[in-house]
Amino acid sequence: MKTVFVLFDSLNRHMLSPYGGTRIPTPNFDRLAARSTTFDKHYVGSMPCMPARRDLLTGRLSFLHRSWGPMEPFDNSFPEILAREKGVYSHLVTDHFHYFEDGGATYHTKYDSYDFIRGQEGDRWKAMVQPHWERLREKYAEGQFSKERRTYKAQNIINREFIREEKDFPSVQVFDAGMDFIDRNKDADDWLLQIETFDPHEPFHAPEAYKKPFETGWTGPILDWPRYGRVDELPEECEELRANYYATVSLCDALLGRLLDQFDRENLWDDTLLVVTTDHGFLLGEHDFWSKNRMNIYEEIAHIPLFVFDPRRPGSHGTRVDGLTQTSDIAPTFLHAYDAKVPGEVCAQSLLPMLDGAPSTYEAILYGYFGGAVNITDGRYTYHRYPPDLRTQEIYQYTLMPTHIYEPFALKELRETTLADPFPFTKGTPLLRVPVKPGTAMSRAYGPDCFIEDDTRLYDLETDPGQQTPLAEADIEARLATAMARIMDTLSAPQEAFDRLSLSTTMSAAE
């Protein structure tokens, strides 16, 4: 068995034609859907980027205990298990630079080998001691320009001076490197290749050829990086931002097409498992917001695409699955594909039985940001439960790896650290119990300090798929709150995770 796992970042499900999207032609996603199984109710777990990847590697949700951070010493990872138990070789090709910052530096080492393609967003790639800032200022919209060193926007401006032709774009190089791995190893067996690109994550930077079909008539400076928050741009600015996202998705579709051509050319459909998905979606003005992290986790963010092709299950090709699935299911799926044992710490399902018609093992699933709402869906309703006050809630991070995205925990965070008893999933290891402090890096960037919305809501996706009108249905809310408590208990959530939401473990026992 061979496996190719394609992971995009911020790829909106509702933009893809297999899911009813019409604004962007995505013929290669259509090609993929015709060959594979399309999952209709696939959801995120922990948010955003690195928390999603921890779920993906370990097969369990992490957001109830930890924000953005590295893989922990006690974590399982599917590449290591496959290598140890089945001799499966794993290779990662990525331009996702968060893997190489403090908060992600223990992920890429789980693979037998890896390629890191440079240049995405704020990757500290090209060195320019004295950039021509005044010339560069003229090129970029005001909100997108910065010359403050060690910021993503300033570094991105420098990096883009070296990305001129299509071949220079990091996502193009990622697929080139992935396809090169396939060419060199197509006659070997027992390997897993992960092709992972940061696109279409912001900034929405695509080659000119992909922008032409979405021209807006914009004549101003480069505008392809929306703020995280409320929409307050002029209509023409909004259209230009969205057009650049469309162009980047179009690039992703073309890159997927090149990979599918290779599958056709090399007859990889005979013996290669192919999985294509993303980590989360991205708001493009829906609900009057840009991006993620600041607002409720609406369907545009939470409900994501997933395609699975298994050559051993020809009856599943071109079909659709309606059962609930989520990001953490990826790990047990790959372990199942190679007949490797699934560790007891995994709290997720293999997707492969669903290709044969088996139902989902979930009646509901949880998702969320650490420190924000705990969200649940049963496929019909979504329920987003917030604590009474995000900024005064008692909450702790549990970790042995105290780093944020690109820096260690601040000393003021660590000074009140205590040692917590082991959780069932930490394999007998006690953890640092770090209180969350207002104003720290985590709280400002993707935690309690940054949320604009914080009111509990219930939506009916059948009658209100756009989540425009919250429901007031006490019986439905009570049922979902009970299910939420039960799943949190299964995940060994700490007591304060229940307390902050006015839930209790007795709710799950009573059910």
Automatic annotation (TrEMBL):
It holds the Pfam family Sulfatase. Keywords: Hydrolase, Metal-binding. InterPro entries: Alkaline_phosphatase_core_sf (IPR017850), Sulfatase_N (IPR000917). SUPFAM superfamilies: Alkaline phosphatase-like. Residues 3-338 form the Sulfatase N-terminal domain. CDD domains: sulfatase_like. The keyword Thylakoid does not apply. This is Sulfatase.
